């Protein structure tokens, strides 16, 4: 047998044998896999943030519109509005501070019964964040009957103003509601994001049907 045959690389190699990966090749493969995984997780995190911001904005917008519609409906059918200016002839426009509006939604002159609704802004535990509250009080001959019923209409309120325009009487000509809210905070650590939805502002003007 020749020396060439003895030194041939193929000599002694079994059929089907393969050379393994080197340490350097394994490290390069791991680095590429890590980069791809990081990019995928980054894209997924961005999708969660965008979804969170969109759903918060949409749900808050719907709730705020429902509350605004309810307030305008109550004002449209109400009477005996307050608070009212001392002299509506000289100063017919009033913007209560703190913001509130009060009116009668049901009245029975025979029994002296009145149902008074007050919508008011209240402070919350968060700084510069308020809640809009509904307060219902029943009166007979001006005397309160039982405890007032109250509950929050809307939370996460950044600002609200009631601008009341009066005529002689004083009779409310129209009221302008200017409402700014921020989207709900889900407070979910699993999808916590730095992306915040923009605040939303709703403005409407409503006139009561009863002007007497």
List keywords for this structure.
212 residues, alpha+beta, 9-stranded antiparallel beta sheet, 9 strands, 28% helix, elongated
Notes on the protein architecture:
Strands 1, 2, 3, 4, 5, 6, 7, 8 and 9 form a 9-stranded antiparallel beta sheet that branches. Helix content is about 30%, strand content about 35%. The chain has about 210 residues and is an alpha+beta fold. Mean pLDDT is about 80; it is low at about 185-195. It has one domain (about 45-185, about 195-205).
Q: What secondary-structure arrangement, pairings included, does this model have?
A:
Blueprint: H1 3-7, H2 23-76, E1 79-82, E2 93-94, E3 100-108, E4 113-123, E5 130-140, E6 143-144, E7 149-167, E8 171-181, E9 200-206
Antiparallel strand pairs: 1-3, 2-7, 3-4, 4-5, 5-6, 5-7, 7-8, 8-9
